[in-house]
Amino acid sequence: MMRAESPSMSSGVTSSSSRPDPSPDTASGPALTLGASTQELPGRVMDAEGWILIERTGQVLAFNTQATLHFGIPAPTRVEHGRLPGCEWVRADGTPLPPHESPLGRALAGEQVDSSVWEVLRPDGTRAFLRGTAVPVKGGDGQVAAALLRTHGVESLPAPLLDASRLLAEAGALLGEAVDAEGQLEPLLKLLVPALGEGALLILKPPGEPVRVVASLHVDEGRHGLLRELLGRYPPDPSMPGGLPEVFVSGAVGRLCIMSEEHVAAIAQDADHARLMREVGPHGCLSVPLGARGSILGALMLLRSNVLHAFDADEERFLSELAHRTALYLENARLLREAREAVRQRDEFLGIASHELKTPLTPLSLKVQLLQKQVVVLAREGKPVPTERVAETLDVVQRQVRRLSRLVDNLLDVSRITAGRLRLELEELDLASVAAEILYRFAPAAAQHGTELELDAPVPVVGRWDRLRLEQVVTNLVSNALKYGAGHPVVLRVEGQGTLARLTVKDHGIGIAPEDLARIFERFERAVSDRHYGGLGLGLYITRQIVEAFGGKVSATSAPGQGSTFILELPRGDIPEEWLDAHAAPGPTSEREPDFDPDPDPGPG
Q1: CA distances from 276 to 236, 284, 295 (A)
Q2: Residue 431 — very low, low, confident or very high, per pLDDT cuts 50/70/90?
Q3: Dihedral, CA atoms, 9, 10, 15, 21, nearest 10 degrees?
Q4: Given its phi and psi angles, is residue 18 left (phi above 0), alpha (psi -120 to 50 degrees) or beta?
């Protein structure tokens, strides 16, 4: 015999043995024995109320139709581990309740659970709030033999997407006020956590750049710390399973369970990686692309620690819209940075160009003025102008005009490169012969600097290149070595390495700091102050662009005070057709004469 307060019911009652529904008129009293028919359960409850009678062994003794609707389950027959079929009792954060903490477990333990709100994860992935009670039912021996669950109403989980407009408006305000693009993204995640999930990640991967996790958030501080450690030590790999390949490659939305045993086995790089993933624990993950103007910049990932709580279509649409707006913000921020950088470079260039263009004009003007005064004085005295004075002045004029011409040529080259109009006329050339000719032309300038020029080129190294541009590249490298390694030997070595031609230019000058090695090949960049070394800072930039047009590469190794070595590698065959197609726009070829000035300032640098 077990007893409980009499539930009342009106219809829809079913026993686990499919007995017919009882009529309210068959109620016989408040007592109920395990051996009695479930039809003896008294009726007279409200139509909206549901109830289930569950034996301690897990056998479902009776239930009504309303209960199955509340819990979203078919006709139940057994309860396993304190859970109705396909259902999960969950906490507010979505994590499962242990069986002994659930209303059913507490009732079977003898506790009467008064009217309260239960959060239940249904088999279809939706969450419901049920107001109900759980009553222990005692047998004839006075021990709890069963539990009676009564639910008095159901309310679907309030959909966060009902506030989508508000969340998007708040996101727009955050992004609109942001100064530092990436630094403003973590507050953005607070709009998602915990409203839509327990955690969120924002991952950036602009084209050609590595993956970076720029913001992360989790409701559980312990898990958040583990998550940050995991992402810091093992950054996401777009080529591995995990929702990222679909996002980065095709731009498709990814849905999967991450940190599960299957996921750990698929991507763990080592035992420590697997340990961290297991400690973070399984999470359902919805990944949407950060797409803007035809490019995928990264991914926005929403995490749920309850892997059974599926993401619905509305949540996907909302997250996709938020990701799109975030991507536009990041893209606009990038364009703004580039515009500001372009203005900065323009202003810097105008200052440098004004100085560099004025530098040769000053001695030119002084020499011409001096000659003019001498001509006037000598004319008054009736004397001829000495030929050597005229020749000296003309020599200065010629050198300064050549210097101006080189500066203008560099500016024109930058313009052609930017516009994609750098044309190449290929012919068969010997790189060793070109290097020897350039050194011959630089010999007077090197002698003035006290610099010894050496060439190590034991055999011809033949390939198909543009003569004018190849000479320009070698000239820039030798000029650079003379400028920054004056007074020390400069050594050129030419060798063939299979399908590649290799030229190294080594000086023993001031050297370059490691942090400056990459930027010296950019526009208007130098590794040293322009107060000590002139030039527009374009020589190495133009060199790199020409070398890449040949399908090759140029690099540098150096250390401060130990000189520098520039390494040029060129393919010896034809130029790739795709490059020629990309640079086939009509435009004039360079009219620069390979005329090099043996003055103490050997080149543009």
Answers
A1: 14, 17, 32
A2: very high
A3: 150
A4: left
Number of domains into which the chain is organized: 3
List the domain range (segments joined by +) for residue 321. Answer: 161-327
Alpha carbons 225 and 229: distance in angstroms, whole number:
6
3-state secondary structure of 251: coil
- The CA-to-CA distance between both ends of the chain, in Å, stands at 101
DSSP 81-138: TTB-TT-EEB-TTSPBPPGGGSHHHHHHTT--EEEEEEEEE-TTS-EEEEEEEEEEEE
Q: Which residues does 532 contact at the CB level (< 8 Å), separation at least 6?
A: none
Q: Do 364 and 401 touch, CB atoms closer than 8 A?
A: yes
Cα 584 to Cα 38, 214, 411, 515, 544, distances in angstroms: 89, 40, 20, 36, 19
323, pLDDT greater than 50: yes
Q: Examine residue 75 and state whether it is found in any structural domain, yes or no.
A: yes
469 located within any domain: yes
Query: If you average pLDDT over residues 59-85, what whole number do you get?
Result: 83
Q: What local confidence, expressed as pLDDT, does residue 33 receive? A: 44
Looking at the fold, whether 125 and 233 belong to one and the same domain comes out as no
Question: Rounded to two decimals, what is the model's pTM?
Answer: 0.49
Residues 6+ apart with CB under 8 A from 175: 184, 188, 325, 326, 329
Distance CA 68, CA 154 (A): 11
Q: What is the pLDDT of residues 123-182, one digit of tens each?
A: 877 777 787 889 999 888 888 999 999 887 655 444 444 467 777 888 888 887 765 566
Question: Are 110 and 83 spatial neighbours (Cβ–Cβ below 8 Å)?
Answer: no
